Amino acid sequence: MSQIAFWGAVELGLVYAFVAVGVFLAFRVLDFPDLTVDGSFPLGAAVTAVLIIAGVNPWLAAAVAMVAGAAAGIVTALLNVRFKILNLLASILTMIALFSVNLRVMGKPNVALINADTMLSPFYGLGIRDFYVRPLFVGILVAVAVVIVWRFLESDAGLAMRATGANSRMARAQGVDTSRQIYLGMAISNALVALGGALFAQTNGFADVTSGVGTIVVGLAAVIIGETLLGARGILIALIGCVLGSILYRIAIQVALSTDTLGLQASDLNFVTALLVTIALILPRLRRGGAA
Amino acid sequence: MINVENIQVVFGKGTPLQKQALNGVSLIIEEGSFVTVIGSNGAGKSTLLGVLAGDVLPSGGRVTIGTTDVTRKSTASRAGLVARVFQDPLAGSCGALSIEENLALAARRGESRGLTPALGSKRREHFRERIADLNLGLENRMGDRMDLLSGGQRQAVSLVMATLAGSEVLLLDEHTAALDPGMAEFIMNLTQKIVSERKLTTLMVTHSMRQALDFGHRTVMLHGGEIVLDVAGDSRKTLEVEDLIAMFRRIRGQTLDDDALLIG
Predict the structure, then answer these.
(1) Predicted TM-score of the model (pTM)
(2) Any idea where the ABC transporter domain is (chain B) (predicted)?
């Protein structure tokens, strides 16, 4: 694997770290199996791309993308909390609707950002090679996001959210409005995923309506790989695990696809993904089985 | 103070399984009074507790806690008035959170929750002291996950949680039923200590007639969704478990007779 390919994988892993943290919030903190992310990731990309082309500041474009993602999360929460639709189904409904929304936003299946100013533009040409700039830039943003989410989850408000996912009856008895926590959690989760989408568009130079397919699997893979590697040792470690898992996942994919002896093609990506997630799911069980 | 006026609760209304769980129950519990509630399965004990906690909304009647009419208030919105310990040790706390996180959660019961770190050093110290009072050695395990604790330890921590934030009433829902006899005794003594120290208005539902007579100031027996016995003061002091069992039998016998009459 070339250096460029390696740093490319790290960069993509860091972009998807936002997805992983979002998925962690929904699946692990709120215990809400949320597939909305397959729609909110390309939504973030689409909103950012369209706004940047319209001449909007790329940072503002990313912020608007986050708001759009939050709105998507709130729709899923509304379907579940207000209309009592099963959480998984509610998220599938939002996801499928977002496909059309994304096409409307872009007006076509994909938008290119060639020569447009992005959040990264000021950092190119500072003497650092481009394939370092991107992972470095995204990495700093990921670190900021991790610290914010970590501090939030260890605050009074965050504790209420964690209790909602862990034992909602107890949470209500402690005065926590569990419905509100689900709205809030889903909004934050999907805002992070949309930010991932926005960064994906800005680092790769395009937004595509199909780029969301399988986002949830990639996010879950990162969460599970992180848990397998670092174990359950508090919120900060879990969040770092998400980031690490996301990067390692991309490197593993890159290695699998670039090793000629395996004879894999880019089209085998989904199979390799499924295989990796399966291994990550089985490993902890094997380890426990060995200890017992 | 608790004031329950003519409460009606019907489950499965309009279906073949319709059941009148509470039928015109009225009960006034004065400030600082400790009332025990007994009754057979299906008598309405848990429903009464649910009505007070907010889990069950009555179809008729009025519930006042302190000076607040809570008849239509949700569990979460009345949590500032009601502290509660559940029968199932797993139900009253979050197994996935640490002991101190559970305490932090309970310390803000009924209050707004902001972005302040849940476990500042001041709060930590306070929680540690309160847990050390239990003499269970848990003060050295404050960071342990709650689900590593035994049922009795969890109930003990739940009792502390119930008293961290102020409340008008303490509701105990057969909170020793899932424990072994030794631990049940420990928890009851702890309950007694906490209730009398803090002068809490307490309602305890129990299966044990011994407990019902040994603790508190007043005993209420429910049957078929109605209050069939309400004793306090001297007449309660002379009451023995045998007397209660005799009453239980008599009430049941009566209903059997009634059924027999109906069928006949």
Answers:
(1) 0.90
(2) 2-249
